[in-house]
Structure formats: C-alpha cells, structure tokens
Amino acid sequence: MGWFTRVKEGITTRTEEKKETPEGLWYKCPECKEVMTSEDHENNLWVCANCAHHERIGSAEYFAILFDDHKFNELAQDLIAADPLGFEDTKKYSERLIDSREKTGLNDAIRVAEGKVGKKMIVVACMDFRFIGGSMGSVVGEKIALAADQAMKRKCPLMVISKSCGARMVEAGFSLMQTAKTSAKLAQLAKKGLPYFSLLTDPTTGGVTASFAMLGDVNFAEPKALIGFAGPRVVKETIGKDLPEGFQTSEFVLEHGFLDLIVHRKDLKATTQRLMTLFAKA
Length: 282
Fold this sequence. Notes:
Layout: E1 4-7, E2 10-13, E3 26-28, E4 35-37, H1 38-43, H2 59-66, E5 72-75, H3 93-104, E6 110-117, E7 120-127, H4 138-154, E8 158-164, H5 173-191, E9 196-204, H6 206-209, E10 218-221, H7 232-239, H8 250-255, E11 261-262, H9 268-281
Parallel strand pairs: 7-8, 8-9, 9-10, 10-11
Antiparallel strand pairs: 1-2, 3-4, 5-6, 6-7
Helix pairs in contact: 4-5
C-alpha cells in the first residue's frame, strides 16, 4: 500500500492508528532512571537491577518472599479502627478509614500472619504504607500485641516489618498509648526467651521508631531506607544546620550503632532463617 492517497480535495498522508502502551508495562527506577519491564522488576523482588533501589512493597509481597510455598495463616483479619474522638480536619476520620479500606483492600496499616520460614514456625507482622501512610493507631498496636501473644503460644520467634510515617495522631492519646503497649508486650516475649526480629524498611519514622521498631533482639534494615524519629526537614529546621550526607539512611544509622545489619531483599528469607537457627541454638 502506498504512503499517499490522492483524494478530490488534494493529497493526504495515510498514517497508522496509534497503538497505546498498556499501563503498568514498564517500570522506571526513581533513583537511577533505568527503565525495565514491570515483570522483570517484580521477578527481581521489586529491586532495581541497575542500582539496587528497593521499591516500597506491602505485606502481600513480604509474605510471598518469606513464607515457605507462600503458605500462611492470617490472624485478626477483621480488626478495624473506631473513631472515638469523632475527629475531623479536612475530612472526617471515619470517612478517611472507609476510603482507605476501599482503595487498598486492607482493614488497617498492618497484617499479621503465622507460617513457616525454612520449615520453622514464625509469626510475622507487616505494615502497609498505602493505608494512611502506615500510621500506628490502636489497631496496629493491638495486632502487634496479638502477634506477640501468638508467638508465645507457638513458642516461636516474632518478626515485625515496619514501614510507617509514625503515630496516627488523629487518634491522639489512643495512638500514643500503643508505644507503651507494644513495648510492654515485647518485654513479655523476651521474658519467655523468644526472639524478636525487627526489620525496618523505607520509611520508618516517628512513634514506630520510638517503640517496637528499635526493640528487636536483632534490628536490621533494607538498603537506603529512611529511618529516624522526626523527618530530615524538621531536624534541619530545629537545629539550624545542614545535615550530614546520607543522614537517616539505614547505612548512616548502622554506622552510628542503631542497627545490627543491612539486608538486601533477595537475602531476606535466608537471613531470617539464619537468625532463627542461631537463636534456637542459643
């Protein structure tokens, strides 16, 4: 077929119909700008093959990475937050909760599951940043407490994967109480001689950092995760000085003694298995 078609009014150019690229087919790394297929990115555990940037993932992905044969039993699925204060800012808190549940398919910012990692039983509580920034409200605290209770019942390790903007301040005191509640429950776990592993991912900040995220028998993190209490901008404005390069990255936190190790996502399951074996022998 020729490039041109002669018509009565003149000569026009025939062009092929534009083909749309399916949405979500490609992934562009926000760190190095490398472009790869979404399938390749997922097969690499949502880590950039070029620069090792660890994309934020949720509980479903971590459970798939950790549990043998992707088999696990989820606990306390039906717990949902109340609105005891009737809080309202730009939007009613009750409406915000409903919207978050509809958009994410989650009931709150954490899920708890038990299953086997390397054929050994473990309880894992994993936070989801998509649900109101992974903020810690009464449900998050209650689920971590229930996770600790289940670990004590099973006489197995507990692992918490943190990914949070901090306390959910729309619940005010109810949220802040969770820092003490989770810390007390982890103390009970320690008295039973059961290990607690804390994995900090990007970002882990605020009241979560100030409580259960930093109380592990082993505290470890993914590469280049933001870890801190207040954010870098707030710290800079408070002290009135420029911050060191890499401030509040997991590498900086490790260097200053607040982490035990940094683990690439591809090594997460093997590292968890190794820790479980070491603590079992101890």
